[in-house]
Amino acid sequence: MHNDDFLFESAKTGNARSFAMLYEKYAKQLYLYAYKFLENREDAEDAVSQASLSVYRNIKNIRNSGSFKAYYFKALSNCCRDIISKNKFTVVGPEETENLTDGGGTESSVIEKSMLDSALSSLSEGEREIVLLAVVSGFTSAEISKITGLTGGSVRSKLSRSLAKLRSLLEKEV
Amino acid sequence: MKNTDREFLKTLQNKISEEPVSLPEKLSPDSISELVEGEALNKKSRKTVKRISAAAACAIILFAAAAVGLRFYGPQIKPVSPSEESGPQAGTDDYAEIREFFHSVREKSKSNSFFDEYNTAETSGAADDSADGVSQAENRAISQTDAQTQGVQEADIIKNDGRYLYIVHRANPNKIVIVDAINPNKLKTAAKISLPETDDEFYTAREIFLYDGKLIALADTSPKSDSVYPDIYGNNGAYTVYGNTGGTVNRCGALIYDISDVTKPKKTAEYMLDGCYIGSRLTEGTLLVTSNYTVPLYKDDKKLDSACIPSGYINGIQYQIPEKQIHILPDNRENSYSVIMKIDLKDGGAQPQTCAVLGGSSDLYCSKTDIYLAKRSYEEKEGESKSFTQIFRFSFENGLEYKSEVKLPGEFLNQFSMDEYNGFFRIATCERNLQSYVTVLDKSLSVIGSLGGIAKGESVYAARFIGNKAYIVTFYQTDPLFVIDLSNPSSPKIEGELKIPGFSNMLYPYSDTLLIGVGTDGNESGTNGKLKISLFDISDKSNPKEISKAVSGTSAYSIASYEHKAYMKFGDTGDFAIPILSYGASSESEEEPFICAFRVDNGSISVLKKYKADSSENGMFIRGAYTGGTVFAINTNELYAFDRETGEKIDKITLLDSSELPGGNVVVFN
Predict the structure, then answer these.
(1) CATH topology of domain A1-92
(2) Distance between CA atoms of B13 and B280, rounded to whole angstroms?
(3) What confidence score (pLDDT) does residue B353 get?
(4) CA distances from B496 to B440, B508, B538, B579 (A)
(5) Residue among B13, B25, B48, B63 with most chain A CBs within 10 A, to mutate
(6) How far is it, in rounded angstroms, from Cα B437 to Cα B427?
(7) What is the ipTM, given to two decimal places?
(8) Does pLDDT of A53 surpass 60?
(9) From A105, A165, B111, B293, which residue has the greatest number of CB atoms within 10 Å?
(10) Domain ranges of chain B
(11) Where residue B379 falls among pLDDT bands split at 50, 70, 90?
(12) Per the CB < 8 Å rule, is B581 touching A6?
């Protein structure tokens, strides 16, 4: 298989196929992140599409393939916030959340999911962003700090606070 | 992190990873590939794509705003006038108008509806060194960095003075390594330059020049800690910089090292600018450094008032650019500046001049008298996203002056999309997958003539202006090479056209009648991932022909397909060489890095010699160089010397010890 560096360099020359192959590595994480953040499948699709265009257009600004994932999530996080600010007047509640799978999951997984999802949606935007970056994308606090622009300390304390909030909500419901 | 947090995080991660996720069709890799290629522009999906690209433009605004720079709210500003341009004295408020403007920008950014265009902060590097003032050892032919314009040098990550090789280390760009190659069998490190580091910032070398016993390091600075996140509007308060170099950039500029004793380089001067590095040029002892400075929209008035005036820094002393050298254009409503510094190295650089225009930029073209900064922008018009190119022209013939500006339809590709010839500025732009334009302008940037509708439905992949002709490669399925006649500036016209499979990303002039194309091979249905070096015969402009081509046996890649500085011409024989990384010659995972020399003879192109790396452990070769009968090549951490005739390796030296490298086996390409 081609390695990331090769794909990355090739994508830099404008090769859409190579770009898509790089994208594929993170596609599910990106979609899941956007979906959990925006709580709406169509918006999530838009956000990932927009972020992809943005990353593709700006790929020459990314120094090496190692920064690709963080750059992508940075773009996605911006797109999500953009969509949220556009949707400010539309109330989107957890009850409107759609099933994430195309074919629909089992009954219990839907219930399980909506518990976690509704716990997530009780967090503020900023908190949700940090939690999702840690949980879905597996970024460290230092990486999250680069992506969000918050200080390392602020990321750690927000993350800890949000996790505590989530824990209490989930435990209550169980 | 507390243990309980860590455990709970793990539980959540497990929980989420167990959720079945199936990617919607719209987000399948195939769809994304189509989306970015813009091929989804058929009738059915047209609306969606437009909508997306408009929104993407918004997203990129945030990005671009973020891309340049958290400005370090540094030491007390001491307005000093660095040259005869008399800067305003402390206490006066000549800048009132500019400040007022930025206050209004900040107001509008709060509602987040302000920005209707953006600029990308791209780095086209800059670079070349001809032997302008560099003492050459003996009388051997030596390599020089490929440059777009004769007499205007471009910086690069490797420079060769005939004895020493000067190399910006790619994995640790805080270091410049100087290797003594007087005896190529015994390469020897002569010195290592560590760029400065302050308590707050570290410096990163981007490229270098050599000039008159001096090494000029073009560098930028980043804050050491990411804890300096001032209170700024825009991007929901989280104003990060994750652009250009993958990190925060404060300032950029030139560090001058005296290398009269190569073993003891000594820093003699430092010229810096706010913003991140766009590129640089060196012509007849005049050094030009350009930056893109995005003003952080501080909530605090005092901070904003100070940050909205771009500054220069001479040997660490900050000065604000004089008000009369700052130009705010009525139609530009963004918070990025293009900034230029001109340093006369002949008089020791005592009196640098600076100039700024509101409107960020990402690429530059430079003639011997004028510098043109270019930006791309995207606007929503009547429901359609349109791309534009804005050009700012500065003259540095006498002093440094902002001269004129123009905005044209379509986006440019790179520095080779621009050119100045016989007093005319020419530029190739394209509206992706719609059409391309070639426009001729006079020096005041008034349009003299233009040709639109070139290659309907395609995009520009490569451009090169040579004399009164433009050569444009567009691509959809096959590779039309257009020859456009500009001999009558007021009416450019298509003179010839060639359609062949595959496409070229870069065009290199070989002779008056031959062009080299470096790109991707293909057939009528698309590309096949193989590297293609084409030889075009352009002697009959109305009938260009691909008379010969070399195609790699397996998939292969060359940096020279987008970085002209990786193209090396052997000045003595006319042969040329590019770095290549080929894939899967004997197994899928095998990578073979080498420098490949080509010869053009009797209308055909042939592989002359391969200079092969021992392994791909240190990545691909990123540049080649030569001195007489020795060919050199660098990768992430090694310099190889080869016998030019036999292709055999003579010696190899490791540039930095593992203790001097950042953690892990980092492979960084250009």
Answers:
(1) Rna Polymerase Sigma Factor; Chain: A (1.10.1740)
(2) 47
(3) 92
(4) 19, 18, 9, 31
(5) B63
(6) 8
(7) 0.84
(8) yes
(9) B293
(10) 26-79+96-368
(11) confident
(12) yes
CA distance A162 to chain B (A): 10
Least confident of B13-27, B162-176, B286-300, B398-412: B13-27
User: Which residues in chain A touch residue B559, judged by CB atoms under 8 angstroms apart?
Assistant: 9
Which DSSP string corresponds to B141-152?
-B-----SSTT-
CA B414/CA B374 separation, integer angstroms: 9
Domain A106-174 has CATH 3.40.50.300: no
**Chain A: nearest CA to B17, how far in angstroms?**
8
User: Closest-CA residue in chain B for A71?
Assistant: B242
Residue ranges of alpha helices (H) inside B312-353 are none
> Which band of pLDDT confidence, cut at 50, 70 and 90, is reported for residue B588?
low
| B619 chain-A contacts, CB cut-off 8 A | 5
B525 touches chain A (CB under 8 A): no
Nearest CA in chain B to A108: B19
Residues 365-424 of B with CB under 8 A from A: none
Q: Does residue B51 register a pLDDT over 80?
A: no
CB atoms B23 and A31 under 8 Å: yes
Q: How high is the pLDDT of residue A64?
A: 77
> Which tens digit of pLDDT belongs to each residue from B182-219?
999 999 999 999 999 877 788 989 999 999 999 999 99
The span from the CA of A141 to the CA of A152, in Å, is: 6
Q: What are the start-end ranges of the E strands in B382-492?
A: 384-395, 401-409, 418-421, 424-431, 435-441, 447-454, 459-466, 469-475, 478-485
Per-residue DSSP letter, B669: -
Nearest to B37 among A16, A60, A83 (CB): A16
Q: A128: which 2 tokens?
A: 């949700």
Across B4-8, B86-90, B386-390, the highest mean pLDDT is recorded for B386-390
Strands B623-627 and B630-634: what pairing?
antiparallel
Pair type for strands B353-358 and B326-327: parallel
Q: For residue B126, give both structure tokens.
A: 């800059």
A25, A33, A126, B76, B367 from A45: Cα distances, Å? 17, 11, 21, 48, 46
The tokens for B311 are 């500054």
Provide the pLDDT for residue B57: 37
Chain A residue numbers touching B8 (CB-CB < 8 A): 163, 166-167
Q: Residue ranges of the domains in chain A?
A: 1-92, 106-174
Does the beta carbon of B665 lie under 8 angstroms from any beta carbon of chain A?
A: no
Residue in B164, B179, B166, B172 with CA at minimum distance from that of residue B197? B172
